[in-house]
Amino acid sequence: MPKTNPLIKPFLKWAGGKRQLLSEIKTQLPKDIDKYTYYEPFLGAGAVFFELQPKKAEINDSNEQLILTYNAIKENVEKLILILKNYQKNNDKDSFYEIRNIDRDTIKFNKLTNIEKAARLIFLNKTCFNGLYRVNSKGMFNVPYGKYKNPAICEEKILRQISDYLNTNAINIFNIDFEKAVSTADDKSFIYFDPPYHSPDKTNFTGYQANGFGENEQKRLRDVLLKLTNKGIKCLVSNSDTGYIRELYNNDLFEIITVQAKRAINSNPSGRGNVSEVLIKNWKELSKFI
Hints:
Layout: H1 22-27, E1 37-40, H2 47-52, E2 56-60, H3 64-89, H4 93-100, H5 106-111, H6 114-127, H7 156-168, E3 170-174, H8 178-181, E4 189-193, H9 215-230, E5 234-240, H10 243-248, E6 255-263, E7 273-281
Helix pairs in contact: 3-6, 3-7
């Protein structure tokens, strides 16, 4: 695997992020991963994407505010940094709630430029409780203030390095449905799916979008994976280790690998700490001895 830039890393904290599972995930990737066009249709904070730093990639997320933030970093990083520096100087509880509540006023929110919306998302992510991105049924950000002493609101070096990377490589950024996001993949593509996790008792955090990601969507994802598998496209899926997910992928085409992750966000205390998750793989590496 080619050497990567350590400053290119997630600029947000994201529930279900994959930083701690990177070593496990990397052992399951194709051995020649750098030869593939990389697809990630549920990008989130992009831990795997930034770890691999592919030269060709198709990245996507259904969260419009998140994707406009990636685009702001790519296209207007210096303006974004200026706004974040101002937030850094004026970070307190009152400012947090003033910025958070902008989306309660649709007219006021829509007057913000995309760069201002991107800066708002980063500021709220860095200063809210647990660094959580969560919206209510109306799509309004509803996480309380986090009371951190010195949050890293403006990480200039990281943002500039990410911007440079996105601009000097063939990286396409989308805000479309996950199925459409992988529709251009072929057998020279590798796809990593990291959807909102299955949560039968709704204790896992999945509130990135007002419309959610339920069992019908989980099944649609499995059906998409079957189609891609039949086309010879290598895919890896992350998800909860639940009976539903194991049954959904109970097929000789798939290998289910159990991994252990440490999770801090769950409404049920038993779902925090070390929890079992799964990686689902749709191909097998040929043995070098064959």
